[in-house]
Amino acid sequence: MWHVRPRLFILITLILLQGCVVSLISSRGPGSKASGGSGLSSSSCGASFGPSTGMAASVVIGQPTMTANSANQGGSPSAQTLDTPDGVSWLSTGQLIIGEYGNNRYLVYNNVPETNNSPADWVWGQPNFSTVTLNTGGLSATSLAKGRNVAWNGAQFFMSDMDNNRVLVFNSIPTSSLQAPAYVIGQPNFTSNAGNNGGISANTLASGFGSVSADNGYLIVTDPSGNLRTLIYRLPITSNMPAADLVLGQPNMTSNSWIHPPTASLTDEPTGAIISNGKLLIPDRNNNRVLIYNSIPSSNGSPADVVIGHNDFISDSSGAGANQLAQPHSVAVDSSGRLYIADTLNNRILVYNSIPTSNGASANYVIGQPDMSSSSVNQGGSASAYTLNRPTLVDVNDCHLFVVDQQNHRVLIY
Predict the structure, then answer these.
(1) Does residue 2 sit within a domain?
(2) Is 11 contained in some domain?
């Protein structure tokens, strides 16, 4: 009997392990986009992330402690410092990537940091961690002028290069600062960077605070500062300066007019748009709202179906209530369907238990403030694990919420 039992034990163990592996794979979800993505199984981190009002961050990137908030930690740039971070992207392959406005670079972490002040593993956009000049060595395929966010759809990797008015496209996730992209969006080549190069069209960008997201066979590029629009491209990208397939926020590809009051079809500096569960969400920053399309539109200038931040589509005032916004910069949706909005000038993240289906919906939770009516920078005091100062981009997976706390020069992990 003793020679049978070990074999039986091994067989049972293998069956159980196989079941665990199948369970883990089936729970991962698509994990195809960096902004608003999900896909890291709760089995990988021990417990699923769940929001609560006034919750504290667990880990800080860019600062030695939760109470420090100087740019580059008051010294020179390094693998551990940040200067005006503007974007954070978690990839389904496990990497965390932070875009920096002040240091003109992307910091890449091969895994989500688990301790404060963790150094990045490598940098893209600069030859090393101490160099931070704009377009170091001259404008090229591997230079950068302001980093924001990236996206990965499992086949192509997209990188926002804001002040060069372009999006860089790679056919794989880059693994070094020397890896050149395959294509460029918004420019005819890698040595041009003019806004609306050749005149505004379906092929151009004048992006300023432009961001990227990719999902469901689409690339979403916000083209805010110069063109006040959101462009949608069908994937894959196979050439330089491709034409967008659809424009939202403007009636056509050659218009960039500012019109007041707003409508359900017009936007004023849209940022941080994503697709989630077939819906398109566009933060309309200067109109202090988030627009929701119940499906991907099929025609230029289509009107949104739902608005967050107002009870109608013609209002644009800001506010600090549970159903109001002040220059929202980005959104994210987790695998449970919860919606997160970076409510930038209210210095908070609003959380909804689901994507709203009617105008003027109120949030269920707030992070960065003690209650739904407060909006002060760092809650009127100093930086801490509970406070925010101009959060810009937000991302989420099953294990963590990631928040760019821009003016505290840090990224917080909850």
Answers:
(1) no
(2) no
Number of domains, the chain = 1
Q: Which helix (H) or strand (E) holds 341?
A: strand 339-343
315 by Cβ neighbours in 10 Å (0-12 / 13-18 / 19+) ranks as middle
Give me the CATH number covering residue 206.
Answer: 2.120.10.30
* Sequence-distant (≥ 6) Cβ neighbours of residue 278 within 8 angstroms: 216, 294, 295, 296
Domain-embedded: residue 108: yes
Which residue type, as a one-letter code, is found at position 103?
N
Q: How far is Cα 414 from Cα 406, in angstroms, rounded to an integer?
A: 16
Rounded distance, CA 116 to CA 60, Å?
5
pLDDT confidence of residue 29: 28
Q: How many H-runs (helices) and E-runs (strands) does the chain carry?
A: 1, 24
Q: How far apart are CA 264 and CA 302, in angstroms?
A: 8
**CA separation (Å) from 39 to 42, 269, 413?**
9, 30, 17
- In order along the chain (414 residues), what is the average pLDDT of each group of 10 residues? 35 36 29 39 67 98 98 98 98 97 98 98 97 98 97 98 97 94 98 97 90 96 96 98 98 96 97 97 98 98 98 98 98 97 98 98 98 98 98 97 98 98
Sequence-ordered strand ranges (E) for 54-133: 59-61, 85-90, 96-100, 105-109, 122-124
Provide the pLDDT for residue 9: 36
DSSP string, 297-311: -SSTTPPPSEEESSS
Q: Is residue 141 part of a domain?
A: yes
Torsion of CA 309, 29, 223, 82, to 10 degrees: 90
Query: Which range of residues forms the domain containing residue 50?
Result: 31-413
State the Cα–Cα distance between residues 164 and 193, nearest whole angstrom: 5
Minimal CA–CA distance to 390: which of 349, 350, 352, 338?
349
